[in-house]
Design brief:
mainly alpha; 11 helices; 66% helix; 0% strand
């Protein structure tokens, strides 16, 4: 007698196989989140400080700083980013592949970081900001996540596209009321714009493309296309 997997478990297994980038990255964030929660507080503080994408760290080791800063989710295992991350990146990866999803994420993470920190460096250089502005705690996956969410909106039918973008805007506004940081909020806005700029790229390489009409027949809000994605 051969035992078969329950239908829900079988569907979950197939879904996870299709999103290796999202699955692996989520496990990394869960690991660092657990360490941030359970590890020695002093060590955790030092690691987060060393991972900060401030001007000081970017000027000394830019590539390493950009990499390690994206290994943490602000708030650790209780972070809302850990809920949104697999949902957003998983949906995008299923439609454009892992390599392209990683590309959109990195574009948002890197560009939004540089476009917020370089003006700080310039302002310090001309004396408009104190030297202490070169060192600040700034880390996490929010820029890349927001860019991916905005890029995913470009694959939705128009009605759902604007609902998603509006939801992102409301979430960012609510977050700013809890913990307002001008540079971070500016970075979030830039990441959203970067994701929108990626619309032609994700549409060109997606398994599903947005329909010309807001059709309810599009499965899950996505319109089907016979075009192969060529994703990895």
């Amino acid at each position: 007698m051969v035992l078969s997997k329950p239908p829900r478990l079988d569907r979950l297994s197939r879904t996870l196989i299709r999103v290796p980038f999202t699955l692996g990255y989520t496990l990394v964030l869960l690991g660092t989140g657990l360490y941030a929660r359970l590890g020695d507080p002093g060590t955790v503080h030092d690691l987060l400080a060393d991972s900060s994408t401030d001007v000081s760290h970017l000027s000394q080791r830019p590539l390493l700083t950009l990499l390690v800063s994206a290994l943490w989710a602000v708030g650790g295992v209780t972070s809302p980013y850990l809920v949104a991350f697999p949902l957003v990146l998983g949906a995008l990866e299923r439609r454009i592949g892992g390599v392209r999803t990683a590309g959109v994420f990195l574009l948002g993470h890197v560009l939004a970081t540089l476009l917020t920190e370089l003006p700080v460096a310039a302002s310090v250089a001309v004396g408009h900001l104190p030297d202490s502005s070169l060192r600040r705690l700034d880390y996490g996956v929010s820029y890349g996540l927001i860019a991916c969410a905005a890029a995913l909106a470009g694959l939705l039918v128009p009605r759902l596209r604007w609902v998603l973008l509006g939801g992102i805007g409301l979430a960012l506004a609510a977050g700013s009321l809890v913990d307002f940081d001008p540079l971070t909020e500016w970075g979030h806005g830039l990441a959203l714009l970067i994701g929108v700029v990626c619309w032609p790229y994700v549409r060109r390489n997606a398994r599903w493309r947005p329909s010309s009409k807001d059709s309810d027949a599009a499965e899950g809000g996505f319109a089907h296309s016979e075009r192969a994605s060529g994703n990895t």
